[in-house]
Amino acid sequence: MRAIQADITTLTVDAIVNAANNLLLGGGGVDGAIHRTAGPELLADCRLLNGCQTGEAKITRGYRLPAKHVIHTVGPIWTGGRCDEPQLLASCYRRSLELAAEHGIRSIAFPCISTGVYGYPADQAAAIAVRTASATLRTLPIPIEVTFCCFLRSDLGLYNARLAADSAEGAS
Ligand code: APR
Questions:
Q1: Which of the chain's termini has less CB crowding within 10 Å, N or C?
Q2: Quick check: CB of 152 below 6 Å from ligand 1?
Q3: What is the pTM of this model?
């Protein structure tokens, strides 16, 4: 696993993950950027998916994106951490990776799900993202190259620290 600072819509990977909302009909932030770059066929495809529950994940093609697929997931809205937000955020990473494996996807990039409009504290979210991805990869039948695509430099620092801790744990 690795972390980079980039615009996720520019990445040539098998799948990029979209931090969507329950309606799956687009929005702002990374959702808006992905729909703008993918073009109108993405929205037409999403209309057929009948929404997405928080913590769940659904897949479409990438259309005009360099990525072949988009995995849409819906993170929790942060309300203080007492409404299952950690479990729901973990589920976004786990279900996205499980869905990717089901579709033979070998490389995937995640944005920092829920840490923008949805207000999830960035460091807590980074810890959940790295820990959940690391644990889930060990359960999958195929290896998947995971990239955490940070838009903000501050997030890149958080992810690099969490990844270093994760690999140290793995080595021990
Ligand atoms: N590439 C990578 N990351 C990006 C990009 C981009 N082009 N644009 C924004 N981000 C980052 C933000 O900096 C933040 O770290 O994505 C992360 C998630 O922020 P949001 O996009 O606001 O997503 P989220 O907090 O999960 O809120 C989801 O916002 O856009 C709406 O429709 C969406 O209702 C949903 C809600």
A1: C
A2: yes
A3: 0.97
